[in-house]
Amino acid sequence: MPPTAASKKSISNEQWEAKLAAVKVAKEDMNKLVMNYLVTEGYVDAARMLEQESGTAPGVELGSITDRMELRKAVQSGHVEEAISKVNDMNPELLEEQQALFFHLQQQRLIELIRQGKAEAALAFAQEYLAPHGEENEAFLEELERTVSLLAFDEPQASPVGDLMDVAQRQKTASELNAAILSSQGQEREPRLLLLLKMMLWAQQRLDDKAVYPKVTDLATARLSQAGS
Predict the structure, then answer these.
(1) Per residue in 127-162, is it b (16+ CB within 10 Å) or e — as a string?
(2) pTM for the full model?
(3) Fewer CB within 10 Å: C terminus or N terminus of the chain?
């Protein structure tokens, strides 16, 4: 029988904040965490400034980040073919080894053709470059069918699959490319800060079964809720 609110331990906001205040995090460790985020997400100028002000080493050549961010920006701007060409110049084996990434980049090229209203070109592109992948992979086929269905609507953005036309879809593809490049360079695919946030949410879910306590419900502000609310 799951525990009721009355049977759980109750921790007030004052008690919780006192416990948080008792946890000491070294400035050096915090700087490393911030540097990892800046490097992974490609904030070169901020990373260089943090290095100068705190002496925190970025762990990579900051010039290499610029190349990675140019690729990410190209996808985010809809210039996918340009991004693919630059990836092949940077690492010819990457897209050969990362078939899912290559498919998603080609899928994004298809979406951009549809966005431009080039229906015939989009169909020809899908048949030549994406259909062969769909024949070999059922998941790719489902994604392809969903993308091609955009052509059935006069206003694709307002269709049931209109999310594919959102800027968020470009961002998703760009993030996948960014992660693959980081991995190929022996770096972490995502910032450690994101991992810590995931661990915090997991810990809160576990603690929900045992206690009533202030929790972080808004990651943007990190504001604590009132215990029991």
Answers:
(1) eeebeebbeeeeebeebbeebbebbeeeebeebebe
(2) 0.74
(3) N
d(C-alpha 140, C-alpha 195), whole Å: 28
- Structure tokens, 210: 């045992």
pLDDT tens digit sequence for 162-178: 999 999 999 999 999 99
DSSP three-state, residue 10: strand
Report CA dihedral (152, 156, 160, 162) to the nearest 10 degrees: 140
Report d(CA 73, CA 70) in Å as an integer.
Answer: 5
Q: What does the alpha-carbon distance between residue 140 and residue 125 come to, in Å, rounded to a whole number?
A: 15
Token look-up 């009533």 returns: 212
